[in-house]
Design brief:
Blueprint (H helix, E strand, L loop, with lengths): L10 H13 L2 E5 L7 E3 L14 E2 L33 H4 L5 E17 L3 E16 L1
Parallel strand pairs: 1-3
Antiparallel strand pairs: 1-2, 4-5
Length: about 140
């Protein structure tokens, strides 16, 4: 008796494979012959593709820059986290333009207590925070 166990790859592995295919995607145009066949858009760098490759017909909009036509506000002025390597991190979110660091003092409620039946009493605190914004 032989048992085969197939398991799903990790989420990180699936993401890495999709990203690799995305990076190697081939831009195509529709054939003038019958409108069903796809050909690589740039005949000088003819890049053959298979059924497993990703293909695209238009470039994606640049969401780093403001573009009202596609509804993108851009990332200039967005808050970011310089310690994060994720999408909220300054390296990715600021699109390589860098970021500015600034200390700000904000007023917020603190030391809140529930007072008998229906009242919450808070003090007002001044908190200094460091914020980072995309250039």
């Amino acid at each position: 008796m032989r048992t085969c166990v197939r398991r799903v790859p990790t989420f990180v592995d699936v993401g890495a494979r999709l990203k690799a295919r995305f990076d190697d995607a081939v831009r195509v145009t529709v054939s003038n012959d019958d409108g069903r066949r796809l050909h690589p858009a740039d005949s000088r760098t003819y890049q053959p593709y298979t059924d497993e490759d990703l293909v695209y017909s238009q470039d994606s909009p640049d969401y780093c820059r403001r573009n009202r036509r596609v509804g993108s506000l851009g990332t200039r002025g967005r808050l970011c986290d310089p310690r994060s390597m994720d999408f909220g991190g300054c390296d990715i979110l600021c699109c390589g333009r860098g970021y500015r660091t600034k200390k700000v003092t904000i007023v917020e409620n603190c030391r809140c207590r529930f007072h008998w039946c229906c009242e919450v009493v808070c003090q007002t605190c001044f908190v200094t925070k460091t914020i980072h914004k995309c250039r």
